[in-house]
Structure of histidine kinase:
Amino acid sequence: MRALMRRLWPQTLAGRMLATQMLIVSIVFVGVGALSVAQQGEGVTDREVRRARQVAEQVTQEPGVRQVLGSQGEAWMSQAVAALESARTLSDSEGVYLARTSDGRVVAAAADDPLRRLPRTDAFEGSSWLGGENDDDDPETIMAMAPVIVAGELEPVGVVAVTRPSPSVWDDLATITPNLLTYLGLAGVIGVLGSLLLARKVKRQTLGLEPREIAGLVEQREAVLHGIKEGLLAVDLAGRVTLLNDEAATLLSIPQAGSTGHSLAELGADRALLSLFPDRRLRSGPTVSVSDESEVSSVDRVLLVRGRLVTANVMPVRQQGRLVGHVATLRDRTELLELQRDLDVTRATTDSLRAQAHEFSNRMHVVAGLIALEEYDDVQDYIRHITADEAELTARVGTAVADPAVAAMLMAKSRQAAERGITLDLDDDSRLARLDGDLSTDLNTILGNLVDNALDAVPEVSGRVRVALLGPDDGAVRLTVRDNGPGVPTDDTGTLFVRGYSTKDAEPGSSRGIGLALVRMVCTKRGGEVSVSNDDGAVFTVSLPTA
């Protein structure tokens, strides 16, 4: 049965709405019809009762009816019966009776099944009476009585009773059917037209999609939003969260359950996340009017959110040309940073090997030239000299720096600087113990970027770069990189560590402005700090906690 109902029930939105409206209209039809029948029935009964009383009062005025109740009544009997029969025929009544008031016995009647005695009512006391033949609440026969009053008599001498059949429900329905059908038909037409217009409007608002298609789209949307690797965060103009998928909740470390409708501040979001929406209205909560809308947009903005590097893209969301909120896509860049660190170490090693190969090639040319000139003593002195310089550099770095990765970075950068005619020195007071893997990687990333910036800042041949490494002391490693370049402009110190900012001339699309931003992010992630000052050149100071 259920399968049959599903098969018979319309499948389209318009069909379902029309069927539902028709069902509602049908129920209204039945209710209105029942109420109309009940009201009409009361009216018909009331008319029949009043008609019966009118006939009874008319009969009481007949001379024969009055005389039959006197002392010579037998002589007037035929005339009285004729008057009763005439009244019955003309009024289409069931019966017309004449009874004495003394005992209620019927003395004359015009009926198929005449009564012998009338029930005593107010008519016997001189008042008209209306009711049923059996005097109950729902009589099958309507009865009306009128007293017969004779001149000279103080009391009525008789009573005329008229009975009429009580109208049935079908009689009532037949009476009201024409009007009822007209009204119900008009209501049905209005209901059908309204249903069609409503279905058309709803279909237009749902882009012509049926309910099953809309439900499928919603389910597919939820599956996609919670299944993609990128985080998705949407807020309205009042700063309340309207959408938060699983990945965004994980990246931002905020609860997903029950987040919709709450502001980011209420969910415990940190300052870095709130900075995505710098407009105060997006965080405070009041509703913003259309004239007070404020767009927020950001492309590939890197944030440090509770130990994670997150790249965010914020775009405005518009609906029918009106700004309704903002959506942010979030990507985890922590793994990319780790990969970039490893790449920095590999690049440093590659640069070191390239510099060594270039320097080795030059030295071999010198040795080959001296041998060709048969200057064998000079060959020995030259080899002894370059061997001593290499051994001195290796010994100096190896003695001061116990961490092999950092020592390898210094050696590579030293050779790279020598290739460009720049002197890279390790401060005599430097001492660095062996570090754990994460701290060594972080320090290498910072050291490589700061030395690269220093080598680019100093002039070739006369440039000098000095590196100082200390620690771990008091739970932190300290790094200082100074150069004899032009220094950092005072106006640039506030924006020096912003991604994409660079004091060097660069062509559009180049990768300038990344190194110092990466340095600050690594320091911030470990809870450290980086600062810059000028002292006959730029001086960068870094402090990295060991924990």
Q: What stands out?
A: Confidence is low (pLDDT under 50) at residues 279-293, 505-512.
